[in-house]
Amino acid sequence: MNEQPVRSKRSRRLRSALILIVGFGSLSLLIAAGFSVLTSTAGGESLDTIDLPIVIKAKNPGEVVESTFPIANRGTKPIAYELSPSCGCTEVRPMSGTLEPGSTLDVHFGVKLNVEGEEKNVTIAILEGKERKQTSTIQIHAQLPESHKVAPDRIDFGMIGKGKAKTVAFHVEHLGHQTEGTVDRIVAVNCNRTVAVERDAHTEGFIARIEPEDRDGMIQGEIQLLVDGSKELKVPICGEITEPIIAAPRIIELSAGTPVRVILRRIDRRILCEPTAIDAPRGVSVTMLKSNGGSTRLAEIGLDDPTRFLDKEGNRRIRIGWDFSGVRCEVECLIKP
Questions:
Q1: What is the pTM of this model?
Q2: Which DSSP symbol is given to 215?
Q3: pLDDT band at 15 (very low <50, low <70, confident <90, very high)
Q4: Residue 172, by phi and psi: left (phi above 0), alpha (psi -120 to 50) or beta?
């Protein structure tokens, strides 16, 4: 590399805004015309190196993507150096040595990336002399871009009322080149609920359907996909089967003189009318606030004397329920003295 004069601090700050990109393991650095690559990072007898970030990209998991950066001795005396990477995933050679006056050395380095979508920020410190004084730092950003992406990235059924079915459409995005002649396909569906996945007849994607069920609780599982004939993708399944009307929060704390508001909501977004009955222990007041005619209602819960609810075991939990024409909604109350 041709030597160029060391520029001012202001010039070095301008150069720091640039990015050197190394594409898919190439050893070449793209350098903006008119800017020096080397910069003195500590005055006097000290090594010069680049002060621009280096971006390197890998193609495949497990690949060590390599590149180089220069160090130069522009002084009049030999300088002993040692290189110290911040990550054990980084290979550097030579790790140490002595650079003679007027000499420039290309340091080779490599960063290993194991998972698609992984990014690593690595620094390589340059230590000089017997004191191992740090004079400059090389900044490296390593990337392993994803080759495929599922959109959306999870099958989220949200809240589903008991006895209701729901479908979610999804598809695979090929971010690179799709292998010719291969077809994305479903390998398995593992879920604690009955979920079926089939090809969408109108698109190139898929449709996941959860069957009606009367057992409430969380929905948990995953879909295993095979893309390009060999690559496996896993898509999480989530959601909740619940009563048609829910309360939020479902657990509240009650203390004397401090009313708590609870939101009652129909998950199908239909209009929520007045409750036909409210179940609450004596000493607990439940007031339905004015309705706006939508799918939610506000209730205010108050307490006068918390001691009346304590039993021999010191139990301080009670339940309050609303009945909407046969559909029940409850909250659990923790009584605080």
A1: 0.59
A2: -
A3: very low
A4: beta
